[in-house]
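Researcher: I'd like a structural prediction for the single chain below. Treat it as a standalone chain; there are no partners to consider.
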Amino acid sequence: MRVTKEPEVRRQEILDTALKLFGENGYEKTSIADIAKAIGVAQGLCYRYFPSKEALFDSAIEQYADVLAGQFAGYGKDKDKNRTLRQIIETMPATVEERDTKYYSVFHGAENKKFHDQLALKVCEKLVPLVEKLLSQARQNGEIQFDDLQAAARFCVYGQLGILLADDLTQEDKSKRIREFLIFALRL
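Model: Treating it as a single chain, here is the predicted structure.
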């Protein structure tokens, strides 16, 4: 019997199944046919939503980056209104990822470093406007004195990647180094 689902529900089902299989078998060893079989649908239905495996994976990166950027955006949002930029930096998490999500094994497996790096860049892209807004508020409050907030936001976000992607540092060391450098660079 054929099961009809709303397009967004079906699209998400395909994404979720693909992520599960990418995590279990690896990206290279998973085909659209494997994904369709796991869902119990025709392969053509998957192609109706995603023209290729690459497009499906790009959608997964986009979706996970939205989740992570949203978690950063929501971090302490209400209480941040009365805090200085320095106080926000001193308490910000270096990461908001949880190990038990459907995304984690796909983006953090040893064989998936390339995907993790793609995700990191996509998250940075989404965080820049949020950081620019924080810097704008800090400038209005007289905490910082520079004019090019877009360049500063990009530097603050993308400049962390070298530390965040370092395999020889603990999460605690990464957080400490990032916080110390941001406070120094922003002259807070």
